[in-house]
TrEMBL record, chain A:
Pfam families: DctQ (PF04290). It comes from Marinobacter daepoensis. Residues 29-159 form the Tripartite ATP-independent periplasmic transporters DctQ component domain. The keyword Zinc does not apply. It is found in: Cell inner membrane. The chain crosses the membrane at residues 12-35, 55-70, 91-117, 137-162. Belongs to the TRAP transporter small permease family. This is TRAP transporter small permease protein.
UniProtKB/TrEMBL annotation, chain C:
Keywords: Cell inner membrane, Cell membrane, Membrane, Transmembrane, Transmembrane helix, Transport. It comes from the Bacteria. It is found in: Cell inner membrane. The complex comprises the extracytoplasmic solute receptor protein and the two transmembrane proteins. The lineage of its organism: Bacteria, Pseudomonadati, Pseudomonadota, Gammaproteobacteria, Pseudomonadales. The chain crosses the membrane at residues 7-31, 51-70, 82-105, 111-129, 136-160, 172-194, 219-242, 248-265, 277-301, 321-349, 404-425. This is TRAP transporter large permease protein. It comes from Marinobacter daepoensis. Its main location: membrane. Belongs to the TRAP transporter large permease family. Part of the tripartite ATP-independent periplasmic (TRAP) transport system. Residues 7-424 form the TRAP C4-dicarboxylate transport system permease DctM subunit domain. It is a multi-pass membrane protein.
């Protein structure tokens, strides 16, 4: 049990790290888009590289946000029955769901996403537009990276469910509503 | 006898006129000519959701073939740029002559070969219009700082003369132009432009120079191609070639019809040509950019060289045939 | 047939309460591997990449950010409260203000997820604090947050313009009247409901310590700054200073500036807002990714062809066709998302409609109104998920399902009105 707790906390830390990066990307993205609008009028300047940076940052926001939201239970559930279930039953649902759905799904995306990014790297792919960003493999590799952390977050659901089953933790305090104000 | 089914991914959405009709005609021809031995199943962008992933999907074998445009892959393989259409380059007839008789096809296979694919001409739009402008362009100064949706190499040429090429999602183009988020937009030609409604919000429709003969492409995975028996390969070749020809004449027909419509229903629309000083500046910029491209890759240099030599020779004849005829007609009328 | 079975299985699986996004993805995974093999999922990176490069969807996190900042500075709360005050002691005043604010958001963006989530964050807590019926509160928010799909600019209209070959500008113009009528009927519904059941939407308590005149003056003063922000967002779009996506960034930065002016600004506040934004954005896009895996398996196992076959059997006359087409879209809207319907079903219906001499502009508006309804219909209505994601835990899914019902009926009523009396909306049924 002790190593389960330790593993659980390590995995949780990974998801929080994803969240931290996503938050940073979020603020940078707002600033980036804002700057691009202002620059267009104030300096009559349009930079394709900065315009592309917008969607690069936006991709990081939602791709790394997904594992983070898995840890904070921010993902929507149809809770017609779920809310009224016992801790044990919730734990089993999350444990089985994570093993059957999250981890295999993450594995497939990571696997194919990896070849996708490697392909871009080998071709030296960059933007097709004048002045666009080079090194497309960087942003493409966010797909397998996100999937990898989705996998660890799925594993984290398992470890957390085990803790709940052992009576060490409860689900209530972890509800998304807390994180969403 | 063995039956074959090829899955084709196209960059266009379902029922996209002219472009989409080309793949449909191709599939129909192949099926009839092979007496049902070869079937082509077309997946439009709504199904594969990766309009600009056609190159990768065909390369990896997820699709057997694709229908797209070569210049979309410029970010992956810079030399693919040259097989669609170049600013101040050949017109459709000249370019087809280059592909089929002037060595263009061989150069194209040389570029696509390392990526395990074959590429064939896939239909032509003819001369694309130079774009919709909300204000008249009277001099080079009017272009300075102008925000225009114009992608690719032509965008780079425009950038050299002071335009700010801008990326706008196609869905937002109309609104962006209407509300002056951008000042000008380049799309295709009357038939397809009419659908987006630019004629309602921009008065100046400029004649083209940047894509005088936009050629689409059929991409085929090489392993798939090699598996086909020789007779089916030949059927494919013929079907691709007729589908391409069909698209060129279909473009001519649909554009003429759409232009007649615009003239009648939107008398506000005026056809304009950029002033000479702008063309001079862009022509120089184009030359400079081509020189840069040639210095970066041997293959690019080889293609540019082939195209320029061919253009020179072919144009000399176009001048005394097509151009002379059109000029005569213009005078007689 | 596999696609149809998959629908059924997904529906049952969702009831277990496991996160929706991964239930979609997981069910798709099993059926996909069974029917087509693992390599089908090699398409997933491409589909995810398409979402990444969809700059229109970029407005989702940005508008959420604007909503969260507004909420954290309590300015939105004051706006809604003040607007409630402006309607005096009128019962239902908060709901009406919500609808009006929703209409303003709708006019600045076509992104439903952002609107519903922003409204859910801004006005749900206020309504609940003032003892509103949970069902009425959530129904009002879902319905007004979804207005964005019919009130221009709208993604549905842009996609339909593309599929049907209609100028988007014409579609935008044609959609204005139906949008206005819909908003009017929502407000009318609140007025009628509160007349007969005043306890569902209590009036704001009157404050006797200040005069009516001062109350109105104070209310107007609190309304000005947030309204100015909305004007910046709307104005930047309407004057063309920015695209809808860019305007959402202007709105976000504008909200931060307002926080500075009202001394609510701190880096902690901005970081907190970013954290909330990331959570909600992740929830929205996880559903999008799960749904894209799902629709991928559905169409690659031939579900789209089967649907086409079924639709080909529709009977031929104009009115029969319109009614059946609308029913089909409505029913499919319960299960699959509007993009799928726009790209798969509409191209099948369009040539039939055109051959019958039906005015395609009118037809497009009918479809748009109908698709907007699909955002609200249980069990898969996206707006319902989005709102559930930001609602406090004691608001249950069943509350939202029940709350949205009257608004769905109003939408169907407006749809019927456009079908029967197109001239009221400045259109005609035929050319
Ligand atoms: Na073009
Ligand atoms: Na809207």
């Amino acid at each position: 049990m002790r190593w389960i707790i330790r593993l659980d906390e390590c995995l949780a830390w990974l998801s929080r790290l994803c969240g931290w990066i996503a938050c940073l990307a979020m603020i940078l993205m707002a600033a980036n888009v804002f700057y691009d609008v202002v620059a267009r009028y104030a300096f009559n300047d349009v930079s394709i590289a900065l315009q592309e940076m917008e969607w690069h940052l936006y991709s990081v926001v939602f791709l790394l946000g997904i594992p983070y939201a898995l840890r904070t239970d921010g993902h929507v559930r149809v809770d017609v029955f779920y809310t009224n279930w016992s801790q044990k039953r919730k734990a089993w649902t999350n444990l089985i769901g994570a093993i059957l759905f999250v981890i295999p799904f993450a594995y497939l995306i990571a696997n194919y996403g990896y070849s996708y990014a490697v392909d871009a790297y080998q071709m030296g792919e960059g933007s097709g537009d004048p002045g666009g960003l080079p090194h497309r493999w960087v942003i493409k590799s966010v797909i397998p990276v996100s999937a990898f952390f989705m996998g660890t977050a799925g594993l984290n659901m398992v470890t957390y469910a085990i803790r709940v089953l052992a009576g060490d933790r409860q689900y209530e305090g972890e509800h998304s509503a807390g994180g969403l104000a | 006898q063995d039956k074959f089914t090829l899955r084709l991914a196209e960059t266009w959405g379902p029922n996209f006129p002219i472009f989409g009709d080309t793949t449909k005609r191709f599939a129909e021809t192949v099926n009839k000519m092979s007496d049902g031995r070869l079937t082509v199943r077309i997946d439009s962008a709504n199904k594969h959701k990766a309009p600009l992933g056609v190159f990768d999907m065909v390369k990896a074998g997820q699709y057997d073939m694709g229908h797209s445009a070569s210049y979309y892959w410029k970010g992956k393989v810079p030399e693919t740029l040259f097989f669609t259409s170049m600013p101040f380059g050949m017109n459709a007839m000249e370019q087809y002559a280059w592909f089929y008789h002037g060595g263009g096809m061989e150069l194209m296979q040389e570029v696509y070969g390392p990526h395990n694919m074959l590429s064939f001409p896939g239909g032509n739009t003819g001369v694309q219009m130079g774009g919709w402008f909300r204000k008249e362009i009277k001099s080079l100064d009017d272009l300075k700082g102008l925000k225009m949706r114009i992608p690719g190499f032509a965008g780079e040429v425009f950038a050299e003369v002071g335009v700010n090429p801008t990326n706008i999602a196609p869905g937002e183009l109309y609104t962006a132009l209407e509300r002056n988020t951008i000042d000008a937009v380049e799309w295709v030609g009357p038939a397809l432009d009419l659908r987006l409604g630019f004629q309602q919000i921009a008065d100046y429709y400029y004649t083209g120079w940047h894509e005088p003969a936009t050629e689409l492409q059929f991409l085929i995975n090489k392993r798939v191609w090699d598996r086909l028996p020789a007779d089916l390969q030949e059927i494919m070749r013929v079907a691709m070639r007729t589908a391409s020809y069909d698209m060129l004449v279909h473009s001519q027909h649909a554009n003429a019809e759409a232009w007649a419509n615009i003239k009648q229903e939107y008398p506000n629309v005026q056809i304009k040509r950029f002033p000479d000083d702008i063309f001079q500046a862009m022509y120089e910029a184009n030359k400079k950019l081509l020189k840069e491209a040639a210095s970066e890759s041997e293959m690019a240099a080889k293609i540019i060289d082939s195209q320029q030599n061919y253009l020179e020779q072919s144009r000399a004849y176009s001048d005394i045939s097509e151009r002379a005829y059109l000029n005569t007609m213009a005078e007689v009328e | 047939m596999i696609g149809m079975i998959m629908f059924g299985v997904a529906l049952v699986m969702l009831m277990f309460g496991f996160p929706v996004a991964f239930t979609f993805g997981g069910v798709a995974l099993f059926f996909g591997i069974y029917a087509e093999g693992m390599d089908l999922f090699a398409f997933m990176p491409f589909r995810i990449m398409s979402v990444m490069q969809n700059t229109v969807l970029m407005a989702v996190p940005l508008f959420i950010f604007m909503g969260v900042v507004l909420q954290r500075t309590r300015l939105a709360e004051q706006l809604l409260t003040s607007m409630g005050r402006l309607f005096g002691g009128l019962p239902g005043g908060l709901a009406i203000s919500t609808i009006l604010v929703g209409a303003l958001l709708a006019a600045s963006t076509g992104v439903v997820g952002a609107s519903v989530v922003a409204m859910g964050l801004i006005s749900l807590p206020v309504m609940l604090a003032h003892k509103y019926d949970k069902r009425l509160a959530t129904g009002t928010i879902c319905a007004s947050g979804t207005l964005g799909q019919i009130v221009p600019p709208s993604i549905i209209l842009i996609i339909l313009g593309d599929v049907l070959g209609l100028p988007v500008g014409d579609l935008f113009k044609a959609a204005v009247m139906p949008g206005v009528v819909l908003i009017g009927l929502y407000i009318l519904y609140i007025l009628i409901l509160t007349r007969f059941k005043p306890e569902t939407a209590p009036a704001m308590p009157a404050d006797d310590s200040i005069s009516r005149g001062k109350e109105i003056r104070d209310a107007l003063l609190t309304i000005i700054p947030p309204l100015a922000l909305i004007v910046v967002v709307l104005g930047s779009i309407f004057t063309g200073i920015a695209t809808p996506t860019e305007s959402s960034a202007l709105g976000g930065v504008g909200a931060v500036v307002l926080a500075l002016i009202y001394r609510q600004f701190s880096f902690k506040m901005v970081w907190g807002a970013a954290k909330d934004t990331v959570s909600v954005t992740a929830m929205v896009f996880a559903i999008l990714i799960g749904a894209t895996a799902f629709s991928m398996v559905f169409s690659y196992t031939g579900g789209d062809y089967l649907l086409e076959e079924w639709l080909m059997m529709l009977p031929g006359e104009q009115w029969g066709f319109i009614i059946l087409a609308m029913l089909v879209i409505l029913i499919l809207g319960f299960f699959i998302d509007f993009v799928e319907i726009s790209f798969i079903i509409v191209p099948i219906l369009a040539p039939v409609a055109e051959a019958m001499g039906i005015n395609m502009l009118w037809f497009a508006i009918l479809i748009a109104m109908n698709l907007q309804t699909s955002f609200l219909t249980p069990p898969f209505g996206f707006s319902l998920f989005y709102l559930k994601g930001v609602a406090p835990p004691d608001v249950r899914t069943t509350d939202i399902y029940k709350g949205i019902l009257p608004f769905i009926l109003i939408q169907i009523l407006v749809l019927a009105l456009i079908v029967i009396f197109p001239e009221w909306f400045g259109m005609s049924a035929t050319y």
